[in-house]
Amino acid sequence: MIPLALLAASTGLALSFVGERRVGIYLLIFFGAALAAIAVGTPPILADRVTIGVGVSAFVTACAVHWQWRPSHALAVALAFNGGLWCGMMRGTLVMPYECVAVVLVLLAIPGRKIVALERPAAQVALKIIAGWIAAVAILTTALPLMLTPGNVMDHKE
Amino acid sequence: MRKFIIAALLIAVTFAEPAFAHEGNIVRGGFIAGFSHPFFGLDHMLAMIAVGIWGGILGRPLIYLLPSVFPVMMAVGGVIAMAGIVIPFTEVGIALSLVTLGGLIAAERKLPVVAAIIIIGVFAICHGFAHGTELPLAADPVAYSSGFVMATGLLHIAGIGIGWLGAQSRSPALVSRISGALIALAGLYFLVGQVSA
């Protein structure tokens, strides 16, 4: 569920910076791609690969927030489509229906857009720092399931 | 008064501890354990605050790039550690990060964006590596590391807040020098401890 939430949140954050253009169009692209992927379905055998793909997409989308202050139209369409597609594919691999989480988080683009429109540097800085955190957690959620943790070793503080 | 309230809130956020009402029954190593970990290691905590202060001094775009790059590279360091790759002298690197960042803050040194990111990235890998080797096997590693990243980010923001409050004071340069010197001195203390160990 965490990779799904990270991708939806990073997509919502990225779409917050689309400038004067309507966020609704990109959200429609996101939901259209997600519904198409859900309709097609995801074979259970691909569950692990989809999880990795969602994690990588979350990282790339979060980094795109830092790429430039206002994503171009093409970049916004690509991010919305990619985010929706992977979220839809991941929805097909989850036992529990977590799509509500993704819907709520991607809709953060709407208040996020309002915050960016305030033209207050502190608010925009906060959104970009949150994107950095999402990128970091995306790395960990993608990589950690692929390796064994080293176990309980002496803490550096002890 | 307003500045005092902001300062009090920052200190409260920085040093707040979670309540362990039923500690004997919980499995250590979840989100709370990861979140609280940075607050109990003075070396890590000072480094994360220093990143925020330095970012505040450097201004845009580093005010948000440094607190973004640090957790990302820290995650990379953690993954390197868990992959079994050995990076030598990481504890020395952690101590050096305090000395370097403290010195840069004290001098109010403004470096080019790429140079600042490289410095922060290298030190973040050291910090991440140290934590990656400590990740408990019984823990929920994703929750633990998510909590850790969240706490790291809050410490960065606390650092930015300290830098901002310093910039609003009557003698901003003095605040930078004192805070930077204290961080560098703490780094020297840890460095001597590492070298003599």
Write a structural description:
The complex is a heterodimer of chains A (158) and B (197). Chain A has 158 residues and is mainly alpha-helical. Chain A is 71% helix and 0% strand. In chain A, α1 runs antiparallel to α4 (73-91), α1 packs parallel to α6 (109-117) and α2 runs parallel beside α4. The longest helix of chain A has 23 residues, at 121-143. Chain A is globular, with a radius of gyration of 16 Å. The N and C termini of chain A lie far apart (34 Å). The mean pLDDT of chain A is 82. Chain B has 197 residues and is mostly helical. Chain B is 75% helix and 0% strand. Chain B has 8 helices and no strands. The longest helix of chain B has 28 residues, at 141-168. Chains A and B meet through α7 of A and α4 and α7 of B.
Main attributes of the structure:
heterodimer; A: 158 residues; mainly alpha; 7 helices; 0% strand; B: 197 residues; 8 helices
Low-confidence stretches of chain A: none
Average pLDDT rating of chain A? 82
Number of strands of chain B: 0
**Anisotropy-based shape of chain A:** globular
Radius of gyration of chain B: 17 Å
Question: How many individual β-strands of chain A?
Answer: 0
Strand content of chain A: under 5%
Measure the end-to-end span of chain B: 46 Å
Oligomeric status: heterodimer
H/E topology pattern of chain B: HHHHHHHH
* Count of runs of 4 or more consecutive helical residues of chain B: 8
Query: End-to-end distance of chain A, in Å?
Result: 34 Å
Secondary-structure map:
The complex is a heterodimer of chains A (158) and B (197).
Chain A: H1 2-15, H2 23-40, H3 47-67, H4 73-91, H5 99-106, H6 109-117, H7 121-143
Helix pairs in contact in A: 1-3, 1-4, 1-5, 1-6, 1-7, 2-4, 3-4, 3-7
Chain B: H1 2-15, H2 31-36, H3 42-58, H4 62-82, H5 90-106, H6 113-132, H7 141-168, H8 172-196
Helix pairs in contact in B: 1-7, 3-4, 3-5, 3-7, 3-8, 4-6, 4-7, 5-6, 5-8, 7-8
